[in-house]
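Dear H.,

Thanks for agreeing to be a second pair of eyes. The structure we're designing against is below in token form, covering all 309 positions.
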């Protein structure tokens, strides 16, 4: 299904440069399986194509890609978007690059004959294959390093973190519901969570299982989105998470104490302590629904009964 089409332009361009033109903004849970661009000019055009997940922007082609005269680019990397996520493009020239974006609603994906849930498509640019910042994690499938598809959490984290930095954050996109143990896999230099490697689930049927350790990242470098985070140890253990951002995450804890430190919450997050206590230290944002006491700079519903959510 065609989601958007047009020519990239902006009436407010500065020196003929289009800055962050919005090609498509999702209004619900959507997937995009094709972004076709063509340079209609008789001279090269420099562009950047990105997907904006809230405050995290991920490149779909290498930055400042040169699209030669008459050349086309077809990004067939499947992308999953929540409401208000955007496909954006910067170009060095106005009114010469045309585009078509295809996809559909996630709830209709199974009925789309153009989509295979078992295939992880690559991004084709003319005859070139561009590197991607989006890795797919499918625990039940065979790995395909060529297609950047992995079935092991620690391997996906380890490979992504070797290239991830502030300019090029990476995304591990978990493409099927199930249980995933958060661990570094004993891989040299790897961590359970790595700076600039974000995690997004297809839905909250994706369960990230934590251990009784202190998880820490550089503040504001890791966004965890649309998953179920759990630590259940029959009332024992004192794990912590420091520096993370969370969006639309469901937490379920059964431990002595779970502590969030300098974390930010976006969307709607649920934090349930079926046993023990949850503490928010210098945290902010919301909204948060929880049976715990709130942090000073948070908003939501606090002191809720665990039977209510």
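And this is the sequence the design step returned. I haven't edited it by hand at all.
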């Amino acid at each position: 299904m065609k989601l958007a089409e047009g020519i990239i332009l902006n009436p407010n361009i500065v020196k003929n440069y289009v800055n962050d033109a919005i090609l498509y903004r999702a209004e619900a849970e959507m997937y995009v399986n094709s972004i076709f661009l063509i340079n209609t000019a008789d001279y090269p055009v420099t562009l950047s194509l990105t997907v904006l997940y809230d405050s995290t922007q991920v490149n779909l082609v290498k930055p400042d890609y040169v699209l030669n005269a008459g050349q086309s680019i077809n990004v067939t990397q499947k992308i999953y978007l929540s409401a208000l996520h955007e496909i954006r493009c910067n170009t060095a020239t106005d009114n010469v690059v045309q585009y078509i974006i295809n996809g559909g609603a996630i709830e209709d994906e199974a009925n789309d004959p153009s989509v295979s849930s078992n295939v992880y498509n690559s991004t084709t640019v003319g005859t070139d294959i561009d590197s991607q910042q989006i890795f797919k994690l499918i625990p039940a499938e065979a790995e395909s390093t060529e297609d950047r598809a992995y079935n092991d959490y620690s391997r996906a984290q380890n490979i992504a973190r070797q290239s991830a930095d502030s300019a090029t954050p990476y995304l591990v996109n978990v493409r099927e519901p199930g249980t995933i143990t958060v661990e570094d896999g004993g891989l040299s230099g790897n961590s359970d969570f790595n700076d600039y490697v974000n995690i997004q689930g297809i839905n909250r049927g994706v369960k990230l299982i934590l251990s009784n350790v202190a998880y820490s990242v550089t503040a504001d470098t890791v966004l965890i989105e649309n998953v179920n985070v759990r630590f259940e140890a029959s009332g024992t253990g004192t794990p912590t998470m420091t520096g993370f951002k969370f969006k639309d995450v469901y937490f379920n804890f059964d431990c002595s104490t779970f502590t969030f430190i300098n974390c930010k919450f976006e969307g709607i997050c649920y934090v349930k302590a079926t046993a023990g206590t949850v503490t928010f230290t210098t945290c902010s944002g919301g909204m948060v629904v929880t049976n715990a006491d709130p942090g000073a700079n948070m908003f939501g519903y606090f002191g809720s009964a665990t039977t209510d959510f």
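Two observations from my side: The helical segments are 153-161. The CA atoms of residues 30 and 106 lie 5 Å apart.

Warmly,
E.
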